[in-house]
Amino acid sequence: MGVVMFYHLTRSTPEETAAQLLPRALQAGWRAMVRGADPARLRDLDDALWRGPDDHFLPHGLEGGPHDADQPILLGEGPIRNGASVLMLLDGASVDPVEAGPLQRVWVLFDGMDEAALNHARGQWKAVVAAGLPAQYWSEESGRWEKKAEK
């Protein structure tokens, strides 16, 4: 059973945070699914990942292509189709404790300046903890990521 890690974004964009976290999954030999509730955000992330420096390229694809199952990082709105061990959630995409249980990591990124996003993340935290999954809360308000809580 992995851990559900909540990232409270106050200084970084989802694209910047994804570019920090996703290489960790690949280095560990894991595939990742990035699930978003906003197709435009997924396209923005796709563009940002393609524009990254050559020495930090993250192999990925947008959901709906013929090679979804082969993608090391798959960006989409649907279920995991690439055998991912890591799930990243953006823009209020919800964590399902049943789906999260067998994964190595679930990264929940939420906008700390948006009250609705904060409330949604709090509800997700409660559901994860109630399901008995380990959870961590990370904040970047000091200028670097720090773990603030763990259940």
From TrEMBL:
What the entry lists under PANTHER family is as follows: DNA POLYMERASE III SUBUNIT CHI
- One GO molecular-function annotation for this sequence? DNA-directed DNA polymerase activity
Q: What is this protein called?
A: DNA polymerase III subunit chi
* InterPro entries in UniProt: DNA_pol3_chi, PolIII_chi_sf
**Pfam families noted in UniProt:** DNA_pol3_chi (PF04364)
GO annotation (BP), single: positive regulation of DNA-templated DNA replication initiation
Q: List where the protein spans the membrane.
A: none
